[in-house]
Specification:
By secondary structure, the protein is α/β, with parallel strands linked by helices. The chain is globular, with a radius of gyration of 22 Å. The two termini are 19 Å apart.
């Protein structure tokens, strides 16, 4: 009988094939230094935002950049050198080169969604803290595994929900939790906009600067065409879930923070397919039933006061009044009177020093940041279930304690995906 290959053996074997070795004390953490030493993995638009943000923080030092597209890597490295002429940062094509370096304290991950979880778990295993872009994971099972790995290795994790750090979200949570509008029984969330179909392109050879096989990674192998890659990946179910999956956590964040929905019972999603090769939903509307709470997601603003002028928003309905908000604004209506604030509600939540600074402070203190993994996994999970309901075109019943669908093997099979063997790096 062939002896099973352990995760560590698999990683080491893959690393050797790439011409570098995993260090014996792979999971040890670098010694504390004056600055948190950062590596950025994934250097598209958001990855460059990461670099700009952390480059501006005096207690962070960017020591490595990584992207499997050489054009992205070279362009971003040149940008970093213009920002920090004395930088000694090194560029890598393969993120495993980054993870083997013991002198790196933390990584940021801004790859396509289908790589988020696996890179984060390998980073935890390598003793790195992680600032990871949203959505948290490709599917429910990945989120469960991430949480176990974070706890096992005692790592710090912050999700890149930058809006979470704003004063407006903090204040909305304070107002809701103060009981100003009473007990909340309904939350309406929305985001306008549709996922494009991307036409019907013909496969072609990938550019020589792009490692297409690695870009696909754990996802099924398909032939390359540019409409499927980089920014457009989010419109394909192999990698993401369209505009819905992209924006869910931006506005669901304030609802989960303020109301803490528990005991999810059912999800019913409706939507439309695109008119092109992209197979993520063109749009999704979804109804969620929790213990003592209903949550509705729509692609058009709901028919409530103030929603039509907001392209994204949350509307809280309580037994004493309502509150509507978006990223920067809010208003409450109580007894027919509309106000933007209630001065008598005290400030009870410590304000963020900035989302990235909050992460650096947590790396030093070893206390989890605001958008920690435990919290964001709970907030992200319903989004995955809505995509499954849309794919199957039917309502689904959920067992919240087991985190599984009730008497529905077809739906439960979509809670996870088997990685492509070559790129299953966590076993």
């Amino acid at each position: 009988m062939t002896k099973p290959v352990s995760r560590r053996q698999f990683i080491a074997a893959g690393s050797a094939a790439l011409g570098f070795a995993i260090l014996p004390n792979f999971i040890s953490r670098a010694a504390p230094s004056d600055k948190v030493r950062i590596a950025h993995i994934g250097l598209g638009g958001m990855g460059n935002q990461h670099m700009d943000w952390f480059a501006a923080l005096p207690d962070a030092e960017i020591v490595a950049l990584c992207d499997l597209d050489k054009t992205h890597l070279e362009t971003t490295l040149a940008k970093l050198k213009s920002l920090k002429p004395d930088t000694s940062a090194v560029g890598y094509e393969d993120f495993r080169h980054v993870l083997e370096r013991k002198d790196i304290d933390a990584v940021t991950i801004a790859t396509p969604d289908h790589w988020h979880a696996q890179i984060a778990m390998l980073a935890f295993d390598a003793g790195k803290d992680v600032y990871g872009e949203k959505p948290l994971s490709y599917d429910v099972h990945e989120g469960q595994r991430m949480l176990k790995a974070r706890k096992r290795h005692k790592r710090i994790f912050q999700l890149g929900t930058q809006i979470h750090a704003t004063d407006n979200y903090h204040r909305v949570v304070e107002l809701i939790q103060s009981g100003a509008i009473g007990k909340v029984h309904t939350v309406r969330l929305w985001k306008t906009g549709f996922s494009p179909g991307m036409g019907h392109p013909t496969p072609t050879a990938p550019p020589p600067t792009l490692n297409w096989d690695m870009w696909l990674g754990p996802a099924p192998y398909v032939d390359y065409y540019p409409e499927r890659c980089h920014l457009n990946y989010r419109y394909f179910l192999d990698y993401s879930g369209g505009v819905f999956a992209d924006f869910w956590c931006h506005i669901a964040d304030v609802a989960w923070w303020a109301v803490k929905p528990t005991g999810l019972k059912s999800v019913t999603a409706r939507g439309e397919k695109t008119d092109g090769v992209a197979d993520a939903p063109k749009w999704v509307d979804a109804d969620f039933e929790f213990d003592n709470l209903k949550v509705y997601w729509t692609t058009t603003p709901p028919n409530v006061p103030g929603a039509a002028e907001r392209g994204i928003g949350a509307y809280f309905e309580g037994d004493k009044g309502t509150l509507i908000c978006d990223y920067k604004t809010r208003s409450l209506t109580i007894n027919g009177e509309t106000v933007t604030d209630i001065p008598t509600v005290a400030q009870s939540i410590v304000r963020s020093p900035g989302h990235q600074q909050n992460f650096l402070d947590s790396v030093r203190s070893r206390n989890q940041p605001e958008s920690n993994l435990e919290y964001v996994r709970e907030m992200t999970l319903p989004m995955h279930l809505a995509v499954i309901s849309w794919r199957l075109n039917r309502p689904l019943k959920w067992n919240a304690s087991r985190e599984d669908f009730i008497d529905d093997k077809e739906a439960s099979a979509l809670l996870s995906r088997k990685y492509r063997k070559k790129w299953d790096l966590i076993g």
